[in-house]
Write a structure and sequence with these properties.
Elements (H helix, E strand, L loop, with lengths): L4 H4 L6 H5 L5 H12 L4 E3 L10 E3 L17 E4 L11 E8 L5 E6 L7 H7 L4 E3 L4 H9 L4 H11 L7 E2 L6 E2 L6 E3 L4 H17 L1 E4 L5 E5 L3 E5 L12 E7 L13 E3 L3
Parallel strand pairs: 1-14
Antiparallel strand pairs: 1-13, 2-13, 3-12, 4-11, 4-13, 5-10, 5-12, 6-9, 7-8
Helix pairs in contact: 4-7, 5-6
Amino acid sequence: MRVDPGRCGPTPLSWQEALDDGRQELEEAQLALLASSLGGVFAWPTIQRGRMVQNLLPVESDREEQSGHGSVALEWHTEDGFHQDRCRYLALLGIRNPDRVPTTIGTVNDVRLAEGHRSVLRERRFLIRPDLEHLRQLARYAPDSEMLRRAHEMYENPEPVALLFGDPEAPSLRIDAPYTTALAGDGEATEALAAIVDELTRAQRDVVVGEGDVLIVDNYRAVHGRRAFEPRFDGTDRWLKRMSVAASPLSKATAGAEARVLAI
């Protein structure tokens, strides 16, 4: 895409600063047009105040966090794997990435699993909790909200889910490495989870999203993360824009709206 980093300004020091800066309207409009051609775009009210186009950039206070604002290695995951209405596609646009910090990608197509492990992974024997970013941001801006109560409930009492689903010959996947566990006492599920974690780690590869590059991740077939890097916080750090796209046709949660904020 056509990106002008000079006009966009220096990499902001926080996602809130980025939301208040309108200099990237052209870049965001291009990303929104592309994303909306794939399905219905949406956002979570728990992340960056529900903005449709969000910012991935290092934040000094979040350096050690497992989030788009950390600079430690971001472990691979399907985006919002804990939620039944997670996106089908994740669209990432590079505004600036002079250090060529890689995004990591791994796909379910590349994993080699024993049939016994595949069978277990298709059963509701696993728990995926919300990543803490959903809780931290809302606790800061809406500490008394019903959405925050619901997010805490999902974290404390997640419902069992299967990690593989759909066509047995070409399955889809939902998993979040730091937040996925087997049910307590389920040795078979623990073994199967370790097997798919090992395989996804083995199969992952690096993709650099540079200035003007767009990476579209099939969130039902692939996991993604990011390599560790050393931010400078001087306006030149890696900066990506992000949008979430629902499957098409839209799910019940998004039906009748081309762009909306979903409740947790």
